[in-house]
Design goal:
The complex is a heterodimer of chains A (334) and B (323). Chain A is an alpha/beta fold and 334 residues long. Chain A has an 8-stranded mixed beta sheet, sandwiched between helices. A 4-stranded antiparallel beta sheet of chain A has the order 2-1-4-5. In chain A, strand 11 and strand 12 form a beta hairpin. In chain A, helix 3 crosses helix 4 and helix 5 runs parallel beside helix 6. Chain A is globular and about 65 Å long. Chain B is mainly alpha-helical and 323 residues long. Chain B has a two-stranded antiparallel sheet. In chain B, a hairpin with a 2-residue loop joins strand 1 and strand 2. Chain B is globular and about 85 Å long. Classes of the chains: A alpha/beta (334), B mainly alpha (323). Chains A and B meet through helix 2 and helix 3 of A and helix 8 and helix 9 of B.
Chain lengths: 334, 323
């Protein structure tokens, strides 16, 4: 993995063989497991301190599930998640609860993810209290500071979420996740519910916060241009597996995996002359069911360059770049 | 909020007026009257005319209604036409407290059992706790008071002989006009009727609590709360519970109005001198004033019950503002 070459100290988070299966059960009184939804099926990557790793893929490919499984909001079926060398998957109860100070999540839907009954002050301030960081007046001051930090008026503390617009709500969500001074933030499509003018504001805010607070992000998204803008490295996911992982320039300039190529070819180019010549690779068919994924390579049923071997063997995850500039890909073409 | 309450009360005056007018008209439209018979026999024609004139029943209906309204304005709910030793005010002040005591204890019991049962069922979803609670709840909703009351009397009163089987354990004069003296006798007599009346209510409250808590527990902000690193207890109590109680509060209004103004079946089974029995009696005997007044009380209670629910809403959900 990428951690093997870079000095181990740099690595904040290391995910190895992460699997998250959701059982499908049948039966009324005695529940039998009849199948699994393989939402995440053996994902490995690492994130360095201060880095932003973008995670892209189409809807339902397991991006959000990966993020939640890393933070132990779902308990992974298999695999390991090392956070500063500490295994998260074995953590439980009180220890896990305390660990949440270090790692937070920004949720996708700013409308549903804030409790409508709590004031902004309580939403943002609650983590301070449960982690014994600030109380009373100190808490109040810290909350106002956080609101200022994310560009909200500090006088908003006594208002309720429904009094805010989508972009403002997402800022509240960001302030909330920053309250405990975490090192690592999973941003689960933080901009997809917002309109375009607000998207840029939020992304810029996230970038500013990263440089001033030294945050590390796992940035989950399906908007490729936005991911390119914010990420240092990008991982592409398809049907529960990673297909390609490299730095943001290499991925856009020479994508290796046919799926990545297809994804990138779908991005419109804001130059009419180039746009006219853009060759779109249109994928045939639908994403197969994660309950019963195809044999061998997951992507072979829709791959324009599929070969016989693709149905037989799962492609290896190999580095096609140099040890300095890694370019990981899972495809039999290479 | 105060302005809202005042406005709501003013708006409900025409509603209550319409209900009373309608009842008054329908009751008088019923064939027969309070003086059409004495016991088994028909009342002599001349006597009937005299009696009717005495209570103003010979006048046109709109004049009768106007006179009734004038009485109400003076706080007089009207005379009793057959049991002339008492007035409607006497009947109400004697029987309503019994119904209020029975009803409020039953509602209290229903919440004390129903809400925790619903919460446990939701938190242990699809476990034996859930299945047992759901089974008991369905049973509780399905078994009618008419069945449950006599069954409880048979078990606890006749076989085990540990609880009294009939009558209310307190009598007028009431403390503050509606409260009983909390004697041992009162509590033992209350057990069976309160339980009979409360069971079905607690069952529906439990089912409602379970369903709505399950829905809330699925919501995104509960995941947010967990991601904050809150204790599971805090997540449930602070974030989930209040949000899930809104549907439960909704049924509280009609429930309170219905139960506090008397329940005929339970009062009949346990021979309680409550207001529910007066309702039926007043229809049978064509006690026009009693029936109109009871309907008036019921509709006022319904208005108040729903207003109470709206106030609870505002407390449960900050998005609801009434000004």
């Amino acid at each position: 993995m990428s951690s093997e070459n870079g000095s181990k100290k740099d690595v904040l988070l290391e995910v190895k063989g992460l699997k998250m299966y959701f059982p499908i059960t049948k039966g009324i009184i005695i529940q039998r497991k009849i199948a699994d939804i393989k939402a995440v099926d053996g994902v490995s990557f690492s994130i360095k301190h201060g880095e932003t790793l973008g995670l892209v893929g189409e809807s339902g490919c397991g991006k959000s599930t990966t993020g939640r499984a890393i933070l132990q909001l779902y308990r992974p079926t298999a695999g390991s998640v090392l956070f500063e060398g500490v295994e998260l998957t074995e953590m439980k109860g009180e220890t896990l609860r305390r660990q949440r100070r270090e790692m937070q999540m920004i949720f996708q839907d700013p409308y549903a993810s804030l409790n409508p009954r709590l004031t902004v002050g309580n939403i943002v301030g609650e983590p301070l209290e449960v982690h014994n960081l600030a109380k009373g007046k100190e808490r109040q001051e810290r909350v106002q500071e956080l609101l200022k930090l994310v560009g909200l008026n500090p006088y908003f503390v006594n208002r309720y979420p429904h009094e805010f617009s989508g972009g403002q709500r997402q800022r509240i969500g960001i302030a909330r996740s920053l309250a405990v001074n975490p090192k690592f933030i999973v941003a689960d499509e933080p901009i997809s519910a917002l309109d375009v003018s607000i998207q840029a504001q939020i992304v810029n805010l996230l970038e500013d916060l990263q440089s001033s607070l030294g945050l590390t992000y796992l940035f989950i998204a399906h908007d490729l241009s936005m991911v390119r803008h914010i990420s240092d490295r990008i991982a592409v996911m398809y049907l529960g597996k990673l297909v390609e992982l490299t730095d943001h320039i290499a991925l856009y300039e020479e994508p290796l995996h046919p799926y990545t190529q297809a994804l990138l070819s779908a991005v419109p180019i804001p130059d009419p002359y180039i746009e006219e010549k853009r060759q779109r690779i249109v994928l045939e068919g639908d994403v197969p069911s994660p309950t019963n994924p195809p044999s061998g390579c997951n992507f072979r049923t829709r791959c324009p360059r599929a070969m016989d071997i693709c149905a037989e063997k799962d492609p290896e995850w190999k580095n096609m770049g140099t040890p300095e500039n890694e370019h990981w890909v899972a495809c039999h073409l290479y | 909020m105060t302005r809202y309450i005042i406005r709501r009360l003013l708006v409900s005056i025409p509603v209550v007026f319409a209900i009373v007018l309608f009842t008054f008209a329908v009751v008088h439209a019923l064939p027969g009257g309070p003086f059409s018979n004495v016991g088994e026999k028909a009342m002599p024609e001349q006597m009937r005319v005299i009696m009717e004139r005495r209570f103003g029943l010979d006048q046109p209906l709109y004049i009768q209604f106007w006179n009734y309204l004038k009485m109400l304005a003076h706080g007089d709910l009207g005379p009793m036409m057959r049991m002339r030793s008492q007035t409607v005010n006497d009947i109400v002040s004697q029987t309503w407290p019994v119904s209020i005591q029975l009803g409020s204890l039953a509602v209290f019991l229903a919440f004390v059992i129903g809400v925790p049962a619903g919460i446990f069922a939701a938190l242990r979803r699809n476990s034996w706790v859930d299945y047992t609670a759901t089974f008991v709840a369905v049973l509780g909703v399905s078994i009618n008071n008419i069945v449950l009351g006599p069954l409880l009397i048979l078990i606890f009163g006749v076989w085990l002989k540990i609880l009294p089987i009939a009558f209310w354990g307190a009598e007028p004069p009431w403390i503050l006009g509606f409260l009983p003296k909390p004697t041992w006798q009162f509590w033992t007599h209350a057990v069976l009727p309160v339980f009979t009346l409360g069971t079905a209510m607690s069952a529906s409250i439990a089912r409602l609590t379970r369903a709505s808590l399950l829905e809330v527990l699925m919501s995104d902000y509960i995941r947010t709360a967990r991601a904050k690193g809150l204790k599971e207890r805090t997540v449930i109590i602070r974030h989930a519970l209040k949000n899930s109680l809104i549907p439960v509060a909704t049924i509280l209004g009609p429930l309170l109005a219905g139960v506090l103004t008397g329940t005929f079946v339970v009062e009949q089974i346990f021979a309680l001198n409550g207001m529910g029995r007066q309702f039926l009696m007043s229809i049978e005997q064509r006690e026009y004033f009693l029936l109109s007044s009871l309907t008036l009380i019921f509709s006022v209670m319904l208005v108040l019950g729903n207003l109470f629910v709206d106030i609870i809403y505002a407390w449960l959900d900050p998005r609801i503002r009434y000004d």
